[in-house]
Each structure stands twice: as structure tokens, then as C-alpha cells.
Hints:
The complex is a heterodimer.
Chain A: E1 5-16, E2 19-30, E3 34-38, H1 45-52, E4 62-70, E5 73-74, H2 82-88, E6 89-92, H3 103-113, H4 119-132, H5 136-139, H6 152-164, E7 170-174, H7 182-195, E8 200-204, H8 208-214, E9 217-222, E10 225-231, H9 232-237, H10 242-248
Parallel strand pairs in A: 3-8, 3-9, 6-7, 7-8
Antiparallel strand pairs in A: 1-2, 1-4, 4-5, 9-10
Chain B: H1 8-46, H2 52-56, H3 70-100, H4 104-118, H5 121-139, H6 147-172, H7 175-182, H8 188-216, H9 220-223, H10 242-250, H11 255-286
Amino acid sequence: MQTVPCVTVKNVSFWYGSNQALFDINMTIPQHAVTAFIGPSGCGKSTFLRCINRMNDRIDGAKMTGTIQLNDQDIREKSVSVEALRRTVGMVFQKPVPFPMSIYDNIAFGPRTHRLASGRMLDELVEKCLRDAALWDEVKDKLKSSAMALSGGQQQRLCIARTLSVSPDVILMDEPCSALDPNSTHRIEELITRLKTDYTVIIVTHNLQQAKRISDMTGFFLRGELVEFGPSETVFSTPTRTETDDYINGRFG
Amino acid sequence: MTQLAKTPVLLQRRVTNALFQAACGLSAVLAITILGYVLWFLFRQGITYFKPSFFTNLPDNVNPALGGIKHSIIGSLNLLGIALCISLPIGILSGVYQAESSGKLSNLVRFLTDVLNGIPSIVVGLFVYAIWILPYALKHPGQGYSGVAGGTALGIMMIPLVMRTTDEMLRLVPQSLWDASLALGTPRWRTMLLIVLPAARNGIVTGVMLALARVSGETAPLLFTVLGNEFLGPITGPTDALPLRLYKYATSSDPVQNSMAWSTALTLLLIILILSILARFLTRAGKRI
Lengths: 253, 289
């Protein structure tokens, strides 16, 4: 696999107040690939994910050291606008959170904010995003109806479409399937596999099979440390650390 | 072997359960009965003079039975309109500030809001009288009373109520909705305006209606400010309002006017009811989805 670095992480540590959540994380996340983070609950993988689009900025007492570079640009430099960063690094959450408005307005919200398109152009953009998220056929006749009426799986694909609407480079996914049934999970996994041709996908998951199925790279977190990081085949077949081996074979966690 | 027989412990639980259930049920019935009795009493007494002339005429001192409270209804609506114009922008904006800030200043503002909430309404009336009407009345004895001043007094009373309700309703909006919007690169102000405020809208409207209902019955802050009037005058001069009319009729020596006090009270109640229904209807129609 040809690897162009997309996100470069150097010596990242993170604190919630006096409570250290991440210890000296180093990794290079390749472009146009799926990178999965696995590990037991509370191991810091979600915290780390939220560092990449600076979603932790708003938390009182949160502190981060080290650097995260996105295409050679330090994301915490003063000249970087957090709005522009989050446009470039989109995020899909564990629970689908549609805005309480129509399906169309949900997708159009981001482009309207960033003044990317209007009128006919916006219609086309909305259609493209919904098609890319494999939702178009199900909702094309009810774009003006409430997004809240969709099923959980549809809502999550809507959220993915909404993330695509502002044309990000990187998509962060925080356990995107854990609230969904197996069928919806399968559709989202297919979707993720297709997305990696155009986007860099970083996904946190508790489902080891899922990580194995869809990811190119896997990082194993334990107690705030990145224990192991490498190509998924290697991590799952011949892990170098005993902790990783224990975890993926269900001996703890 | 599983124990399915009724043991003494289980029996005791069932008795306790029944007792508490009965206590809760009886309290609910009692609360509703008191409220229902007040309403029924008001309705029975007030319906006597509910006829068109009551709403279209001014008070008639020669033939009280032909008199009406048209000017009080218009006066009250005007006062409430002014109060809304003052309290809505200030209350909602400061509520947004409260919900979005933390720290010493925010705590101080919240504390002062509670203090303002606890100030007796007559003090607010005196305050407006002292800084607005008195300076004028000193130069022109007997003048200076105005509906605008009264509306302002009611507005001042509404500000902490609207502010508190906005603050609380905004805090109820789940963090996940914030995150979803911010993660798209939406600035905070836009998230607040287009996502969070609409999500809290119903609660805020309900709170505003409760505040409006509360001040609509206030008599004390109006005594020093709008004075009352037997005629329909401009809002910049002495104005009549339903609570003032109610007080005047209730303390009148004329039995017909005594009875009309009940009709005035019923009118006030109906106006609040209509405003509440209207607000519900408007928020439902205005809801984008």
C-alpha cells in the first residue's frame, strides 16, 4: 500500500484537569485509508479522536501537549481557524444526531454556513452527498420532511452525508455503528470502505471484527497509551505485544 | 424452591405502597379541586355581565349596568405589549449569555437575577415612579403618569423571569446537538442561533407566557405609574388596566360595579388563556418541521 501521511501525531499527551488521559502518543495516519482505533472503554481512544478536530477545546480544564499535523500544518497554531479545521476534519458521532429540521436542511446546513453553494448548486450538492452516503434512494421523495422520522441507521447515514457536505479531507468516526442493528452496521461498513477512495477515515470501534474487516491500519490503546500501531493484518494476526494479543483474543477487556 | 407465597415483609411493602399511592392521589385531587373551585366560582360570578356592551363601552356612572371595560382591555394589552418589547430582547439575550458563560461574573449575574426576581412588585412600581414620573410630577403636579411607564415597570419584572427560563431551557439542549453542529465547522453564534435556540424554543415560549400571565395580574406596580383612567386615552398618558379596574369595581359602593369586578377578573383570565393558546399555535406553525 502506498502511504502518504495525512495526520502526523507527535508526543501527544492530554489531561482532563489533573487527570491524564493520553500518554505520549506518536503515530502517522496514512491518507485515503481506514485507520481503526481499538481498546477497552476509557482507554483514551475517543479523547484522542476528538483531539484531531479540536472538539476538546470547549472542555474546561482540558490541556494538550505535543503536536498534531494535518498535511504538514500544525492544527493548534494560532493562524489556524478552528472552524476551517473542523470543516476539513469532519466527525460522525456514536449516536446519530440529526438536526431537528428537514432532511434537505440537514445536509444544506454546512454548505450554507460556509457559503459553498446556493440555489440549484445546493440542490445538486445535497443530492450528491445523499448518494455518496447511500441514502438518496430512500429519501429522495421526502427531502422536505423531518429528519427525526428516519430510522436509526438512516439517521446515521444522514449524519455521514452531512459530514460529506462540507467536503472534508478526513472523517473521524466515533463508534458510528454501536447504536445500530447488524443490517445497518453492514451498510455503513460498506459505505466506509467506499469512502476511503476520496477521504481519510479514522474510526473508533469496540467491534474487533469490524476493525479487522474494514481497516487498513489499527491502533490499540490501553490506559491512555498507544500500545501497538500497524497494518491491521499484522496487528490482528501477529501482534508484537502481549497486551494486544490478550485483548484481541478476548483474554481481558 | 422459589418463594411465591405472601410473606409478612411483602405485605408490609404492599401496605406502604397503598398508603403512599393514596396520599399522592388525594393530594392531586385536592389541588385540582381547589383550582377548579376558584375557576368555577369566577366563571359563575363573572358571566353575569358578559355581554357585548361590557366589552365595547366605557364605564357609565349614571347607569352602571350599561358600562364596560373596553379601555381597560386595550390598556392592559398595550401595557403587556410594551412589557414584552422590553423584556424579550433583554431577557433572551442575557439568558443566552448566562447559559454560555461560566465564572464569577456569570454567577454574580445569576445571583442578581434571583434577587430581582424576589423584589416585591410594588418596589418596582415605586422605582419607576421615582425615576420617571416623580421628576415630572414635581414641576407639573398631578401629571406625568403614563402607560409607557407602567409597561416598563411590568417589563422590568419580566426580565429575570424570561432570562431564567431562557437560561434553563438552553441548558437542557443536549451537548450532542452542539457537538454535531460545531463538528461541521459552524461558529458558536450560528450554532446558538440556528440549532440550539430553535431546539429550546417551545420551552422559552412557555416560560415567556408564564411571565406574561404573572405580570398581567399585577396591580401594585401600576398604581404609581399608569394611575388608571375612566376614559380611553393615549398610552403616553394615564391609562387603565384590568387589575386596576378590578380593584376599583371591587371597592366601589355600587353593587352592579361590585359584580362587574368578577366579570373583569374573568376577562383577564380569558385574555391570558387566549394569549397562551395563540403562542402555542404560533410556535407550532412557525416550527420548521
